[in-house]
Each structure stands twice: as structure tokens, then as C-alpha cells.
User: What shape does this take?
Amino acid sequence: MTSGIDRRTLLRGLVGVVGGSLLAACGPSERADSIEEPGATAGASGSQASPSAHEDLRVAFWSQPLAEQANVYAAQEYGWFRDEGVELEFVPGAGGGDAIRQIIAGNADLAFANLEPMFFALDQGVKLRAVYNIYPENVFNVISIHGHEMTRPENLRGKKVGIYSLASGTYHNLLVILRAAGLKETDLEIVATGINNFGPLLASQVDAQAATDTGLFLAQHQGLGDVDVIWARDYLNTPTDAFIVTEKTYQTRKEVIRRFLRAYKRGSQWMLEHPGEAAALAQKYVTDGQDVSRNLEVIKLRNASTLNADTREHGLGWFNLDVLRQVEQALFDLGLIKNRITVDSVFTNEFIQDL
Assistant: This one.
């Protein structure tokens, strides 16, 4: 995700969000209270809030509704947000930077965004907190046609590499990959090719293309063929996305944040355990989700990025502060931020133990 148009293909159709209800926003559906909740999900939180009134919570997502967000639709569909006293409003967006701007402007309460625009805002003096690590695994990569011997960062020297845009996570993570080999941006030619545009790679107009796991899947689904992949996570495992709030929201709305995260985590656990059902549910909610088999593959990728050794030990949503210090150092070394940021004062695991 980026400060502008960023990773994963964005839906172009206008999706209306009315009455603060995701059900109303995302296509034909029954109301949550008319649907029977599925059987107990192993690993889901056993604690249920019993709030006397529901509280509105506006969540700015980096995108329009996508199939990979089936955990959110499940929490809405089966009443898990309602059980926690949360009335979710899905605020669609056009990139992580857009989601961050929404919470800064007061148009949303939480942002579903990547970390780069968060660090950029912090660098400018904005006070933010990250409260949940949505995808602790880095999904960015650099792809080349197999046989062209571009399997390591140093192989990119002198090459022409495509990115989605200069505002995208593909660009930022390419710089991190280059840094691992002691290379700079000036050691190669970087070309903005557009979102998930593998045409220049197939036409040999670029030697490699910076992309994501889902971008790679979609390209191979459309006939890209055999490729070599350099994964950013092998050099710096920057978490892909987090839930982010302003300092004011963090200080004044901790209880509703906690309840929202509890329901969100329950949806994530359900999607991990029932990917096939999640793929079918996405078909009901999003315009890009009519192919259930495609939904399933995308959901499997998102499930994989949800888990790592830290989340298995501490629970979903856990931040590894040591990794985040490395991320901050890399962004500073690359000149993407000018001021040092104290990671421990920005990223918190305090909600995770209560979920």
C-alpha cells in the first residue's frame, strides 16, 4: 500500500457506503441479524462484550472492498461486530496514504494501511499509533522471467525495473531490496508501469517488475509463465499492513478499539480455518470476487501473510518491535524519513493480550 495508488488491483466501480453498514455497501445481502452464526470456531475469543449500546466506528480501508477482506465481511455477516457493540462503517480508499489522511482529517477512526505512509506522517510530526499488525509478513517482491539470472538483489545492477508508481510500496520495497546489496536507485533504471502491469515485462521493455504476492498470482493466472522472484521479506520483513489511529483516538477510544479488534481477529481466525467458505462469502460482497476459485487463492495468500512465528507465539496482531526498529533504520538510511522515530512509542501490543 502506498501514499497514492498502490499495491493490489484497485476496483474501479463506485461502491456506496450508506448508513454506516458494510452490508449495505457491498452488494446484495441479508442483514446480519437474519443469518444464523456458523458453528463455534476453534481459536476464536470466547469472551463476548455485552455493551448497552452500539458505537459507530469508521474504518478507512486502503481500497474498495476486495475478496481478500472476507474476514471483515464474516465479522459483519455473522454479527461478531454487533456482539462487540460496534457498528462498522467501511470507508473505501485509494491507497494507504489516503487511509492515513482520512484519520488525520477526522473522516475515519482507524486506518487499514501500510507502514510507509504512517512513517512519512510521523516524520512530519503527526502523532499516530499502530494498534494491530494485520499482515506481519512482507508481500512485496521483484519478478523476472525465468532464465534471465535475476535471483538476487545484486543482479539488478544496470537493469530496468518496473514499479507500480513512485508513491507505491513496490518502489519503497525495491529500495530496501537494493539496500541489501549496497545498491542505490542510481545503479539501475526505475520505470513506473502502472498497477499490476506486467505487459512491459512480457514485452522485454523492463528486465524485472516490482509487485506483490497477489500481483504475481494474478499475472501467472493470466499466463505470465515461469518466473524468478526476489522477496523483500528475505531482506527486511516489513509488516505489510496495520490498523493505525491518531494519538487522540488512541487516548479517548481504547475500549471501542479493543472491541473492534476482538471481532476483527475472530473474523481472521475464521478465514484461516475456513478459506473455502471465505472465498464463497467474498462472492457476495465485492465486484472483483465472482470467481470463487480465484478468491480462494487470494485468501490463501492473505492467510499466509497473517501468520508468522511471532503471531503463533503471541497471537494474531502482534508487532515485533525489533523488526520495526530495523524498518525505521532502513527508511532513515534511504532518506525516506528525515527524523528518527522511536518505534516503542508508536507501535503497541497492549490490545493483543485482551483479544
In short: The two ends are 26 Å apart (CA to CA). The longest strand covers residues 128-135. The beta strands are 55-61, 86-91, 110-113, 128-135, 140-145, 160-163, 189-192, 208-212, 227-231, 241-246.
